[in-house]
Specification:
By secondary structure, this protein is mostly helical. It has nine helices and no strands. Helix 4 crosses helix 5 and helix 6 packs across helix 7. The protein is globular.
């Protein structure tokens, strides 16, 4: 899966916005001032992008590394984010099967199988993790929402501490920063 994510990058219609926003931000040294689709000065600021600055994160990574944000998004970050997603699955497996390493390994193995062959639609969670993880909604669906549910499962029968509230706050901010849908879906998951 990691090999395919690096050497056979998936490109879809949303890349026109995500990748173009990152490269435009880096090239123009501005935030959403230019239309990512046309490259022209934006007629007005689209306020929904306030809650989705994830492409700007990749522009910053591109600036710091000296690598074009398109390469960062399609080649460097997918294996890192996919591994992070599988780490979340390993934590879920450890919660579900605390006494059996075999069951934990089997759970993660079947998650990998489901992810590999679950690409029937572009909007499924498995597709988001493997094919679109550099897009904000991919990171949200493949990593952050499973992590948020794991947090609630592990903390549901105990009193929350300050560390728990801090971790929860960080997760909610992360959900809000990767996608405008994350602000809504994070709150719905919390409820």
């Amino acid at each position: 899966q990691l090999f395919l994510s690096v050497f056979y990058s998936h490109i879809d219609q949303d890349d026109a916005w995500y990748v173009a926003s990152a490269t435009t931000a880096l090239d123009t040294n501005s935030l959403f001032k230019f239309d990512a689709y046309t490259g022209e000065l934006a007629a007005q600021f689209d306020f929904r992008y306030i809650l989705g600055p994830y492409p700007i994160f990749f522009a910053v990574l591109g600036k710091l590394s000296g690598i074009n944000p398109a390469i960062v998004m399609h080649t460097i970050m997918p294996p890192v984010l996919i591994l992070l997603g599988y780490m979340v699955y390993m934590l879920i497996a450890a919660y579900l099967f605390p006494k059996s390493k075999t069951a934990q390994g089997t759970f993660v193995f079947f998650m990998a199988i489901i992810s590999t062959f679950g690409g029937a639609m572009i909007h499924l969670q498995t597709t988001m993790l493997l094919f679109r993880v550099w897009q904000g909604k991919g990171t949200l669906a493949g990593i952050l929402l499973p992590l948020l549910f794991l947090f609630f499962f592990t903390r549901s029968h105990q009193r929350l501490t300050r560390k728990d509230y801090f971790a929860f706050t960080v997760m909610m901010f992360a959900c809000c920063m990767v996608s405008e849908m994350g602000a809504i879906l994070g709150i719905l998951a919390m409820a």
